[in-house]
Amino acid sequence: MKEIQASKNPLIKELRKLHQKKHREEQGRYLLEGFHLVEEAARWGETLELILVTQRGLREWGSWLARQGEESLYQVSDEVMRSLSDLPTPQGIMAVVSKKTQIITDFSGRWLLLDRVQDPGNVGTMVRTADAAGFAGVALGTGCADPYSTKVLRSMQGSNFHLPLVNVQLEQLIPQLQQLSIPVYGTELNVDAKPFQEVKVTADVALLMGNEGQGVAKDLLNITDFNLYIPIYGKAESLNVGVAAGILMYHFAGSL
Amino acid sequence: MKEIQASKNPLIKELRKLHQKKHREEQGRYLLEGFHLVEEAARWGETLELILVTQRGLREWGSWLARQGEESLYQVSDEVMRSLSDLPTPQGIMAVVSKKTQIITDFSGRWLLLDRVQDPGNVGTMVRTADAAGFAGVALGTGCADPYSTKVLRSMQGSNFHLPLVNVQLEQLIPQLQQLSIPVYGTELNVDAKPFQEVKVTADVALLMGNEGQGVAKDLLNITDFNLYIPIYGKAESLNVGVAAGILMYHFAGSL
């Protein structure tokens, strides 16, 4: 096992850059923090290029670490860990995970489509809920929070290892799905849209959720099969987008 | 209109204490920030003891402010506003609102009961969703995030002005509801509980959601009519509590 004491070590400096999307794309990898997520990544067959652990972490997770490849393991100082973590109290374990290039050719089943969902917590919660609801995958359009940022990763709680996340051009994907006879439903805050409770549950479906403030882009709403609406029975103006996605995904969840 | 320039002004020092729950309870009032929330409070008949506004805010919301009581209006410096706000960029308007003592004797309709929900964003989102789903009110047990904290207030987006929020002892409220023949359903991550889709929708119902990590306390789960479960169809371990509450509330929402 190698050791790194100094946060100005060239490898550590390189890894710190992974907090920026540009560098995650250039290096093709991302940082994952905390034992639960690192263990989940390993369990689901992700490639852990490096595992960085503090002395305290080595004691705590020693038996699990002993089963990982010796050559990928680095013991680091608390200073190094703090310099890499964006948590106020780092847990003491972090992995560098290779980004998978996911090419999806089969869009059968239920898919969640996200149009410019910007809040990392919202993107993460929706991926986690999609997983719980048995959705086949999540397609992220341009302008969504990057699922490989540490905030989104924390909020997904490992669901990104359970189902595919793909970056797409929604204006191209939607017509493709429709050619495959997969219905695509947009969502809008408009009482002229169809109340979701009236929509038949089908084995294949694509559900399109939009930006926190602006909703789904008009251009996309215009090309869906039709658009859904969650009725507001009280005096609230709207629902949180993560909650709305949960209500709709569970409408389509389960067996027919 | 009075003016306050210095953040060490005795009134401002007193108001700053309202960031602590203890002082909100002692003073019987709380801080509310941002034009949208302040306007919503006034519209729904809340008592705005004071309105603090910066010079820029005066220009922006002048016509609305002119319709409020002159004697409650204070023009404050940017320094004073910054000292009171917990936002990185204060909006320039803040109100001091009297806490209402809400004594609820009628628990008919649909109620959301919260057991030790600690995250301010979760409490706020659930109140907002309860409002959207047409619930009659939200009962907060001991150990919940204080709904008068600025974070919860932001996240409720004004729904606290639309429906009553009451502090309760859940172990006392639950038997009272049951004596009134109102069914009380707990929620748990337990496949032995009843899948929510199988539960009949009734006009009166109390739905009990629990702490983020620990769920609903065992003592409470033992005294409910029965407990509900949201089936997990994928590989996620659980749902975010705010999302789970949304799925369940919308199951019970709307007309019979």
From TrEMBL, chains A, B:
GO biological process, one term: methylation
GO molecular function, one term: methyltransferase activity
Alphabetized UniProt keyword annotations: Methyltransferase, Transferase
All copies of domain RNA 2-O ribose methyltransferase substrate binding, residue ranges: 31-103
Keyword Methyltransferase in record: yes
Pfam families for the chain: MRM3-like_sub_bind (PF22435), SpoU_methylase (PF00588)
Family note: Belongs to the class IV-like SAM-binding methyltransferase superfamily. RNA methyltransferase TrmH family.
Protein name according to UniProt: TrmH family RNA methyltransferase
Source organism: Enterococcus diestrammenae
